């Protein structure tokens, strides 16, 4: 994983250069993969030049902000992959499998989604893509393995994403870098 810059993982707090970067300690630097830097560039370009018919492209540079992406946790990785898919023209939905807390009943209610369904569902160039995000030591549950089998048996694509760089490599191999 090549990087060209580092970003502190806490609000402005920086550590000494002799300390190693890792994902587990939030007080240390997070090495940003080049693929995420490219995503930030593409997203910035889309947001200010193409979104809403280019209405924001004449804003002065000093007021334009750059959305930051990372793959240092499952939620950030899911958001980065969703943005990548949208920027490449895929119709994508993030699936919420968590229930909601019902104040009246004083308990959680099931979300109603199928057990084992993946985190992201997308359609790109007429192909159904199911993407499950796993971070750290997390592995597929038995329900997710069964869902993966059913997706692949139907002729669709299923991918388990552990980091953003590997996802981009898979994307480029599957869709020819589009």
* Name of the CATH architecture: 3-Layer(aba) Sandwich
In the CATH scheme, the class would be Alpha Beta
The succession of helices and strands, N to C, reads EEHHEEEEEHEH
Number of domains: 1
Mean pLDDT: 81
Radius of gyration computed on alpha carbons: 19 Å
Approximate strand percentage: 15-25%
Q: In percent, how helical is the residue content?
A: 25-40%
* Strand tally: 8
Q: Enter the CATH topology name.
A: Trna Endonuclease, Chain: A, domain 1
What is the number of helices?
4
Q: What about the largest sheet?
A: 4 strands, mixed
Spatial sequence of strands, sheet with the most strands: 3-6-7-8
Query: Runs with pLDDT <50, length 5+?
Result: 8-25
The rough form would be described as globular
Distinctive features:
about 180 residues; alpha+beta; Trna Endonuclease, Chain: A, domain 1; four-stranded mixed sheet; two-stranded antiparallel ribbon; 4 helices; 8 strands; globular
What does this protein look like?
There is one protein chain. The chain is of the alpha+beta class and 178 residues long. The protein has a four-stranded mixed beta sheet. It has a two-stranded antiparallel ribbon with strand order 1-2. Strands 4-5 form a two-stranded antiparallel ribbon. Helix 3 links the parallel strand 7 and strand 8. The protein has one domain: Trna Endonuclease, Chain: A, domain 1. About 10% of the residues have low confidence. It is globular.
